[in-house]
Amino acid sequence: MRVSHVSSLCIAAIFSVLSQVSCPAAEEGAVRRPQQQGWSMGPLLLVVDQPYRGKSSRSIVVPAIGYEGDTVFLRGLRFGVHLKSSPQFSADFLVQPRFAGFKSSDIAAIPNLEDRRDSLDAGLNVRVAMSKASAFRITTLADVLSRSNGQEVDLRYEYLYRHGRARVTPWLGGRWLSAKLADYYYGTLSSEVAAGVPAYRPGAVVLPQVGVSLFTPLGQSKWTAFTLLAASYFPNRLSNSPLLDGDTASIIIAGISYHF
Q: Which of 35, 121, 235, 248 has the most CB atoms lying inside 10 A of its own CB?
């Protein structure tokens, strides 16, 4: 089953992991242009808890592939171009899939639902340093395939702690979903309402999020071990949707990566 918000949360978390595994920050600050370029690869274990009706937690193993170059990068399924990079400010152009669709049969408890389609987003990721260890990050995305015709803004504050060669980065923030985006993936369509599905349109909504990641090199090798915990809270505008049965989504990621 492809679960809309959980899939998006998974993808965002994988991007976060790969950006730090393949491009660790320089020792003198958390926001300097990554010095370690090239390819990285390794397995990821994901444990996902989701709020959609009829589904609970699940665990999967997926490959994680990353590449960092002077101009372009690939982090899982996110492709980007570095537009500006300095110790205090960086900006990237992004293209990435939105795995937010689902099959009507995935939510069997509600008859007459229609499929929701995945899409492709494009936008900007901007990171502004507040100190050598802290930064604000804002990511703006827009649907370029006209599935929902919606937009998303992800804002977070992150702080880097170091213990030897290990890095711990907690972050706190939120995701704003436009009315068109939230209505398409979490509400009901006019054609579904006509077929007897309860009418529901949440409108624009903000989802608070919190997370923490840990990265540590394995000895003097090119291997890095990592883990990430992230959770997102669904306000009433979303949790009251007939498609949902809960108000939180969470993810645990653990794995190792080899840098070529």
A: 121
Are the C-beta atoms of 7 and 46 separated by less than 8 Å? no
Q: CA 198 to CA 201: how far, in whole Å?
A: 10
Q: How many helices (H) and strands (E) does the chain have?
A: 4, 13
The token duo for 249 is 């989504």
Q: What are 226's two structure tokens?
A: 């990592």
Closest CA to 43 of 260, 256, 259, 258: 256
Q: Tell me: the pLDDT tens digits for 124-183?
A: 999 999 998 999 999 999 999 999 999 999 999 999 999 888 999 999 999 999 999 999
The model's pTM is 0.83
Q: pLDDT digit string (tens) for 17-64? A: 655 555 444 333 444 444 468 888 888 887 877 777 765 566 778 777
